[in-house]
Fold:
Amino acid sequence: MNAIEKGTLVNNNLSYQDFAILLALETNPSMPMTELAQLLGITRITAKRKVDDLFERGIIRKIIAIYDPLTLGLQRTYVLAQVQSITDLGKLEQACDEHPYTHYRARAFGGAFHLFMQFDIPKGSTKLLQGFFEQLKKRKIVSTFEIFTSIGIGKNRFADLTRFNMEISRWHFSWKEWFKLTERASKTLPEVPEIKIDLSTFNPKQFQILRFLTMDGAIKQSELKDKLKMSKTQTHRDYNYVLNHYIETKRLLFDRSIFDLTEFYLGIGYNVPDKIKAELYHTLENNPPPFQLIYNILEGGHIILSANMSPAQASEFAFSMWEKIPRSKIFNLDTQKSKLYWFYPENFDFTLKQWKVSKEYMITEPLEKLKKNGEK
Structure:
């Protein structure tokens, strides 16, 4: 038996080779079968058969497109809200479902129970989002909450399969050594990107295409043509415009409950000196850890560093980050109960050529829908 195939995962009859395939396709969902085969040391036919099998068994669910909020004139805003009961957690998740600008949510635990959320809101509307959560606090759905706004500087990294030892199921990596390495990095942050957005150029058909791509990143242009009743030429032009201007990356969605190998951990650092923010940024750029990872610099001197890693790596990650950034909180994210929301074109008013920003739209209406649905 080849070392890469040694052992199966408990109760699921899935090999570490399957895990390797998921990591590889998570990095590049459009990876050619020839390249995947070379990476795993198997034939192209075997690689295709295994990928097809993962799709057929529902382990690989689909490919979706992830948009860049900055290209749309939106700002990525994070909210961490604490809840007192599982009932309140369900109500808060429902509140996210009703809010028009929700992008992502995941349950988080670490000392207390929270919901970690991402909202892509129009610039200058943070106070309205704060007002929404103040109302949820008034209704005793949340007990406390924190809001963090990205400044537009960060790094996204995917897993590096070459640093995973299939035979012993371990990563060739040490968080302690990596955080030490950051001390040698540049102490200067890059400039905040200045992206000028002309809202008058936004196109309804392109926004519909963007929505479909966030639902299914592998959708064919011929399907879009029929769904949106567009000509072949127009579909091709608008599809490529959306890919080139709005899409940040494509992501593979798979059933993580199948693999009891990795979990997502969220680290929040408070009042982080600029030199440490810069050290982390440049080390992630030049010597990234081998895990899927997100780093974001936030307003107010804070940072978010989250990574998908094995529980064996998590302890070293937590203590190393705490040593580097004394004011830190570490949470475990329950990605099995997480939800990623599709792009919502209705948030943009094509008559007024602006994103919908009002107390009624961002506070009153979602709360009324929550109440109407009985906060199930």
Q: What stands out?
A: Residues 3-57 form a domain with the Arc Repressor Mutant, subunit A fold (CATH 1.10.10.10). Confidence is low (pLDDT under 50) at residues 1-11. The radius of gyration is 22 Å.
